[in-house]
Design a protein that fits this description.
By secondary structure, this protein is α+β, with helices and mostly antiparallel strands. It folds into 4 domains: 45 residues, no CATH class; 109 residues, 2-Layer Sandwich (Beta-Lactamase), CATH 3.30.450; 78 residues, Helix Hairpins (Orthogonal Bundle); 145 residues, Heat Shock Protein 90, CATH 3.30.565.10. The chain is built from 11 helices and 14 strands.
């Protein structure tokens, strides 16, 4: 046999192989794609398409499983095992789906598998793999057939990370909105007293040296107001970075409350009569910060108390905590607003009637929390509000918001 004959035979064999490959591609027995190679067009074939599909499923980021109609797992990828029991290497074949989910989710799983036999079904369940990290997982089930056997294809998607990212995005938007509100409110609140201060100074210059005590008092009040606004802004910065430092000392809360009630200008201007019922309550607290708390609560009672009586009580009878109550009979607070009351920039009155930055209650609640205490409110619209502060006599571990 000559070399030419051998070459002809090789060509015939190559042609036969190419024809067989084309026949297999046309019939769907072989998956193939055409790619641009260095020497022109090449045909890239998957001679075992099941192997390619399996490699794809094994590497996917979602859990996938084939489940019999009665809930037995026949096949699953590593991600499915990771989501259900916390181990990618675990084998769940032959196990009942019920064994992998909390007891309270079994009924929902059964209903999903039942619905999936008639059409795609989807539910959300809470799973706790062995690593202890609770997950919210979306399960999607649909009917299919493998090797002439009817089964259900179940896809498991971890929603926890998606929701965590969404929450971070939401918090970022809230932070941006809060900063914008801070700039807007602070600009308005600082501009108004500054304009009055400048006006008063202009009057003084025109009348010099005839300066009245009332004018000096007005300027002093404006100065105090500006100082308080700036202090509030600085306090928000400290609280936001968790840098609030307390200077603790032994003091009597009853004495502190009496002194503040006697000199509260906001209450005096409101015309509300004030009753103080204070029994000795000695503890170790930050005097300056508690003065802020009491002053803020009294100021709010004066602003929104409609000139009606205000009651302040200090109770030191409890062995563990001192209790401060500031109660008014004013406009009250709507139930849907109470949950927002201790957030920054929230104000009790309407936008048109409320004054201040809306930081007083937020800062007060944070100061109380830094002492290991709690602040809460009870209120009915049109009846009045009752703010309750409970302070441990000795500073304990800080209570998280």
């Amino acid at each position: 046999m000559t070399s030419d004959t051998l070459q002809i035979d090789d060509v015939v064999i190559s042609i036969d192989e190419a024809a067989e490959t084309l026949r297999a591609i046309r019939s769907g027995q072989v998956d193939a794609v055409v790619i641009n190679g260095a020497n022109g067009h090449d045909v890239f074939t998957f001679r075992d398409p099941d192997h390619a599909y399996r490699a794809l499923v094994e590497a996917m980021g979602e859990g996938a499983a084939l489940v019999t109609r009665d809930g037995i797992i026949g096949y699953h990828n590593p991600r499915f095992a990771e989501l259900t029991i916390g181990s990618r290497a675990a084998s769940l074949r032959g196990k009942a789906f019920h064994e992998l989910v909390p007891t309270d989710a079994v009924v929902a799983i059964d209903a999903m598998l039942e619905r999936a036999q008639r059409g795609p079904a989807r539910i959300e369940v809470g799973l706790t793999p062995r690593d202890g990290n609770a997950l919210t997982v979306q399960l999607t089930a649909s009917a299919t057939s493998v090797a002439d056997v009817d089964v259900l294809c179940v896809i498991a998607t971890d929603l926890s990370e998606q929701r965590a990212q969404a929450e971070l995005h939401r918090e970022a938007l809230i932070g941006m909105e809060a900063r914008e509100r801070l700039i807007s409110i602070a600009g308005h609140e600082l501009r108004a007293p500054m304009q009055v201060l400048v006006s008063e100074l202009g009057v003084l210059l025109a009348q010099h040296p005839a300066i009245t005590v009332e004018q000096l008092a007005a300027i002093q009040r404006l100065g105090f107001r500006l100082a308080n606004l700036v202090t509030s802004l600085l306090d928000v910065g400290l609280l936001g970075s968790d840098q609030l430092v307390l200077s603790l000392e032994d003091l009597d809360l009853a004495d502190l409350v009496r002194a503040i009630a006697d000199r509260s200008e906001d209450v005096m201007r409101s015309g509300s009569p004030v009753t103080v019922e204070a029994r000795s309550a000695r503890g170790r607290w930050d005097r300056g910060r508690l003065e802020q708390v009491v002053t803020n609560l009294l100021s709010n009672a004066g602003k929104y108390g409609l000139g009606k009586p205000i009651r302040i009580a200090v109770d030191g009878d409890d062995e563990e905590v001192a209790r401060l109550v500031v109660e008014d009979r004013g406009i009250g607070i709507a139930p849907d607003a109470i949950g927002r009351l201790f957030r920054p920039f929230e104000r009790i009155g309407s936008v048109k009637t409320a004054t201040g930055l809306g930081l007083g209650l937020y800062i007060s609640a944070q100061i109380v929390r830094a002492h290991g205490g709690v602040m809460r409110v009870e209120s009915d619209p049109g009846v009045g509000s009752r703010f309750i502060v409970e302070l441990p006599y000795r500073r304990t571990q800080r209570v998280e918001p």
